[in-house]
Amino acid sequence: MKYPQPLQSATLIKRYKRFLADVSLDNGDVMTLHCANTGAMTGCAEPGDTVWYSTSDNPKRKYPCSWELTQTQDGHFIGINTATANTLAAEAIEQGLLATLGGYDRIQREVRYGEENSRIDLLLSGNHLPLCYVEVKSCTLLQQQQGYFPDAVTVRGQKHLRELMQMVDQGHRAVLLFMVQHSGIDSVSPADHIDPAYAALCRQAMDKGVEILAVGTEISPQGITVMGSVPVKATV
């Protein structure tokens, strides 16, 4: 995925109200960015980090600039815009980087499904293959050289795991796909120490037949490139 226009850089002052962040420009001016990430963003939003942002030409936007990447003071790049994860996941599937998800000729996005009023991120179909429900999660939490998901308790994420298990019960394929958007992460594990209920559901889902995969990326201000599978550890 290439950015349509070059990203601009600034220095993070603070993130607040979940969707906003103040940054300092090179000339000393302070600007407010939109932050398309509702998570805790642990380790991704430290004051003094370099922020890379895009600019929209939509005149109706109150905050025309959007936070896309963080470059940490340790030199790591992190994808902040969680909406990017679905685009990257579709690219990985279309480019054949996940052999287990090959052979499908149609990808639909945001399809309603399940008994808990959910939308699946990607629904794969075609070529006489079973329907494949793919739930995509952006993984950006790095602690002790290990990638974790989630970075905060996620009731919504627990619901998605229950929905995926129901799809397996109905005879479909179901996949939980972690899209790694942190240059320092080379394996992913459920975060027992943050959301033990989610981690337990992950392991239950694996036992039930839900496939749990992870895809690594290469991140720069020019774009994010999918790089292939990385290991998923049920426990650490």
Short characterization:
By secondary structure, the chain is an alpha+beta fold.
What does this structure look like?
Helix 2 (155-169) runs parallel beside helix 3 (196-208). 40% of the residues are buried. The model has no long low-confidence stretch (mean pLDDT 95). The protein starts with 7 loop residues before the first strand and ends in a 7-residue tail after the last strand. It is of the alpha+beta class and 236 residues long. The protein is globular, with a radius of gyration of 18 Å. Strands 3-2-1-4-5-6 form a 6-stranded antiparallel sheet, with no helix packed on it. The chain has a 6-stranded mixed sheet with strand order 7-8-9-12-14-15. The protein has a 3-stranded mixed sheet with strand order 10-11-13. Helix content is 17%, strand content 40%. Strand 14 and strand 15 (223-229) form a beta hairpin. It has helices at 84-94, 155-169, 196-208, and strands at residues 8-16, 20-24, 30-34, 50-55, 65-71, 77-79, 106-113, 118-125, 132-139, 141-143, 146-149, 173-180, 188-190, 211-220, 223-229. It is built from 3 helices and 15 strands.
